[in-house]
Amino acid sequence: MKSGFTRIAAIALLCCSSSAFALSEQEAAERSISTSIQATKPGLHMLINVGMTYGGDTVATAVFTNGSSSDIKGGGLLQFGAGGLYQFEQQPIALMLSANYHFHSVSGANGSISFDRLPIEALAYYTGKERFRIGGGVRIVNSPEADSTAPGSGFDIKSITYKNATGLVAEIGYQLSSEGWLNFRFVSEKYQGETATAYNGATASLAGVSPKSGSHLGVNFTYEF
Q1: CA–CA dist 161, 209 (Å, integer)
Q2: In this predicted model, what pLDDT tens digit does every residue of 156-187 receive, in sequence order?
Q3: Which domain holds residue 6?
Q4: Do 63 and 26 reside in the same domain of the chain?
Q5: Structural domain tally of the chain?
Q6: pTM of the model
Q7: Which residues make Cβ contacts (< 8 Å) with residue 120, sequence separation at least 6?
Q8: Among the four 49, 189, 210, 211, which has the fewest Cβ within 10 Å?
């Protein structure tokens, strides 16, 4: 009877030891992943980013010959950029400045309709939380313009120019690797129409016309080097 109890106790002890060993391995693996991702080093870093955005008012609508249509949004759709980020050494703060190309376009066999602009963004981040950063700032949107190369596509104006705009940006980022960040953002901005130009060359002022919302949600990937 005693030997049976001894065997049971030994088996129980062995199981506990195995569980502890497995738990220890899991903890070690998690720590290894965490330590393999290095925080952004102090100093200046160049960066490139690419992202998708959605939101805003309809700037133009393309109508296709099959009867379908597609809206061009003031907050859409793709944004590419490059710039620099400076991480302070003594403070958990980083500053970023970037030049970007933001556009939404629809194409057909006879041409395309697009809304293009050139935002300059200046952002500040708090970087004191491991693998996270949160911040915000401003973006100056230059040369916003809706343009059509497809007469008769439902957008009968050749182009609409808008005044340069200033928007506000809020962003939170998660560090995927030592160089890569996945960022989620909200941008608030409006576009005031300036001039509309028809295909025959006639122009009209858009002063007094309600502005179009360009506010949007977005997700982007930033690579720092």
Answers
A1: 13
A2: 799 999 999 999 999 999 999 999 999 999 99
A3: 1-36
A4: no
A5: 2
A6: 0.84
A7: 97, 98, 99, 100, 139, 140, 142
A8: 210
